[in-house]
Amino acid sequence: MTTSTPGSAPVVELRDVSKAYAGDVHALRGVSLTVCAGELLAIVGPSGSGKSTMLNVIGTLDPPTVGTVRVAGYDVGGLSDAQLSALRSRHIGFVFQHFHLAAGRDAIDNVADGLLYAGVPRKERRARARAALERVRLGHRLDHRPAELSGGEKQRVAIARGLVGEPDLLLADEPTGALDTASGEVVMELLHELNAGGTTICVITHDHEIAGSLPRQVRFRDGEIVADSGAKEAKEAKEAREAQQGKQGKQGKQAQQGKQAQEAQQGKQAQEAQQGKQAQQVRSR
Amino acid sequence: MSRPKRQSAPTGGLPPLKPSRLSPRDILGLGAVGLRARRARVVLSALGIAIGIATMVAVVGLSQSSKSDLLAQLDRLGTNLLTVEAGKDALGQEVRLPKSAVAMVERIGPVQHATATGNVDAKIRRSDVVPEERTAGVTTQAARTDLLTALGTHVAKGTWLNEGNERLPVTVLGSVAAQRLGITEPGGKIMMNDEYVVVIGILGPVELVPTLDCVALVGFPAAERYFRFDGHPSMIFERSADAAVEDVRAVLARTVSPGAEGSAKVSRPSDALAAKAATDKGLTTLMLGLGAVALLVGGVGVANTMVISVLERRQEIGLRRAIGATKNAIRLQFLTESLLLSAIGGATGAVLGAAATYGFALAQGWTAVIPPWSLAGGLAATLLIGVLAGLYPAVRASRLHPTVALNAI
Ligand SMILES: Nc1ncnc2c1ncn2[C@@H]1O[C@H](COP(=O)(O)OP(=O)(O)OP(=O)(O)O)[C@@H](O)[C@H]1O
Ligand SMILES: [Mg+2]
Q1: Where is this region: Disordered (chain B) (predicted)?
Q2: Residue A89 to residue A85: CA distance in whole angstroms
Q3: Does the predicted interface ipTM exceed a cut of 0.90?
Q4: Whose CA is nearest to atom 11 of ligand 1?
Q5: A5 in a domain, yes or no?
Q6: What is the pTM of this model?
């Protein structure tokens, strides 16, 4: 995995994506979203607003009803089920609210399973699982079974399983939803660390504090994106990249980076403003 | 599924997406995952298969063991013994064989050995206290001293008739006769008509001619002297070269009673044993059928276990799909699990069936024979059942939608 700054090639591109379920349920209505390599974004919104649906569409677990989805450069709509599986095994990692660990198997086995379908030989799977567990600071719990781990430790095992294949994209659906505040903080700290190491991460969360601490927030309501703190940024970054292609590489890049730093500052202020709004919403609910 | 199936769509300059193959070892490991987690259920559903396979292996093993025992017995006793019995003529009159019958038979070319017994009219009692009417179903026959050689048997206890004692009032009892008279050791006396006769030997079971088990045998001269025996043989025993048995058979009746050959009854005692070796077939088939039914029920049990396993493990299936398992990989996992489950049952059944065969054969004094084809057949049946029982659950598992499976409770 190459370390990249936000603003490089997009990892996720949704264009006018809608998802309808039987019974006239429109879980997503014309959603467009671009996530670039190295981003760490929070997806927030009320219950039933379509967050999980979008994450499943991004993760190629669920096809959209209309619209195009690109993940790691691949146009997902044109791929067979086997190709989608291969895409998931090599480019996408998942973390779920309820961990989904195998009860009878120890931490190493659980994490090593994350490489099983990517064609990695058994020995290497175990070695890399050990390294991944050390990365989530569970080096001392390698042979513990899920029943012998705390909730936070279980989620860290699940994260290790999600990242052991070094995916381009880590998708986490309420990873702290089943954890107490302290464990949740450890998990978020870990996600920040992984992101600093270059992993692109999308996190669904109901926790405003957590959402506020992430560089970009995407807000959902009734299947639509109603606010995206990074949309302008991403658009501008794209324009800068296109401009850069014509001009001298080095100058353009420096200019772009300077601009980003400025924008990041602006983004933070916007976030704080949003946080206040969110707090209000919660009270009113 | 909602999405049309497309094979290897172009990926626009990016490296092609091709799912990796699982190694055989990984496939086995995947199949064992579900079994390890639910041991009690595995044991119970494998038991059904085990009972079916055990029944079939044991039935085949036992019928083969008994058959091979009979064949070994035939081998030991030979199939070249023919007997001729005096019969009745067209008018229902008893036709006696001539006194020279044995000598005449011995003159037939391929005949190697001939001997005879004769019916003696002497009532047998345990002692003079027992009334003469109660003969315990034991009859008296005169025997030539070379009878046992022709039959290929020996006395179980005591001695046989010989030139020295064949004129004396001594007798050798058949095994059943001795039992009926309550005699276990030679040396005692029984009554024949009004004579006390000393028991000098007891025969073992005569496998080829079981009628000899129920008689008391005395020498020809003694029978003539003490019981007014006329010296005419009533049954001739003859052995010839194996290849010539049919030729001898063709001329035997004519030889011993010229002119009345229709009355003499020629038979080949070994035919009865050979028939016995063949007659078990019906029972064996029935038992095999029962084993097949048990196997079928076992297969249904495995299918049931697999369906439940798939239902319970929807979340695991969803997770595996999320981490990159193809539908094929899921199908393969559950098919392997089903195969392993029935293979465990099959292997246990084969061991149980073989053990039962050994135990029963040991108790019967047979050599245990477990034909390799029965084990191979059991294995094939096991694998077939594993596939059939696992196919439907495996296909169902592979068709589960990943998100629905993940959200299943
Ligand atoms: N398989 C399905 N069939 C029908 N409707 C569905 C299905 N899955 C989700 N929905 C509906 O789609 C809408 C969006 O669901 P989604 O799970 O994306 O919400 P969410 O934002 O993740 O909510 P939460 O925060 O509670 O997890 C909901 O109204 C839900 O009832
Ligand atoms: Mg959700």
Answers
A1: 1-20
A2: 6
A3: no
A4: A27
A5: no
A6: 0.75
